[in-house]
Amino acid sequence: MEKLEMLYEGKAKRVYKTQDADLYVVEYKDDATAFNGEKKGTIADKGVVNNKMSALLFQMLEAEGIPTHFESLVNDREQIVKAVKILPLEVIVRNVAAGSLAKRLGLEEGTPMAKTVLEFCYKDDALGDPMINDYHIAAIELATEDQVAAIKSMAFKINDILCAYFLERGLKLIDFKLEFGVFKGDVILADEISPDTCRLWDAETNKKMDKDRFRRDLGDVEATYQEVLGRLQK
């Protein structure tokens, strides 16, 4: 698959056209950002970890009946994906109070919640990705009602699958972000699943095993990313 001109460069990835209009090449970068781009840095080989981990998890989810954009790995940093049109929504699934939710609701971080929480944010860097609800989505036509229903159904199913999968590998899935796109009329899972997009805590010690180590200057960032990938590859 030949990589042609770059279509888009984001905080963590570059997307390239290919000779096939239905396929893109995604290249994962080592750049790291936090707090809507206010904090910037580099995590050595983060792109390798996120590329391999996303590929592994997308394939696992496909086997469980979740349609994804993933097609195949190219190399350590690149994968081929379907040419989806990304819906401008960040979908956040929360199992335990942490991060902004804990602060917003005055909960101690680590507080289990009686019910899984699903949140939507409007994917717009200039606005700071504000939180929105179903009514906002319909009012400004970010997605149809059927698309939102499909996203909700898949998000909860993905959560169930990933919680069990990570726990078998000694990790608790605290919360995570998903993105979805439309490909040939169908809503499918896109973007990535990685320590950048998931809060993962060690199941025994509650050590943070994700990008919070970068956000909060906890140290041991690169080694932790590598450890997460290593646990999934066993």
Automatic annotation (TrEMBL):
Keyword Transcription regulation attached: no
Protein name: Phosphoribosylaminoimidazole-succinocarboxamide synthase
Domain of life according to the entry: Bacteria
Domain SAICAR synthetase/ADE2 N-terminal: 7-231
Family per record: Belongs to the SAICAR synthetase family.
Organism per entry: Fusibacter paucivorans
UniProt xrefs under CDD domains: SAICAR_synt_PurC
NCBIfam families the record matches: purC (TIGR00081)
Pfam families in the record: SAICAR_synt
PROSITE patterns on file: SAICAR_SYNTHETASE_1, SAICAR_SYNTHETASE_2
GO MF, one example: phosphoribosylaminoimidazolesuccinocarboxamide synthase activity
PANTHER family membership: MULTIFUNCTIONAL PROTEIN ADE2, SI:DKEY-6E2.2
Keywords attached to this entry: ATP-binding, Ligase, Nucleotide-binding, Purine biosynthesis
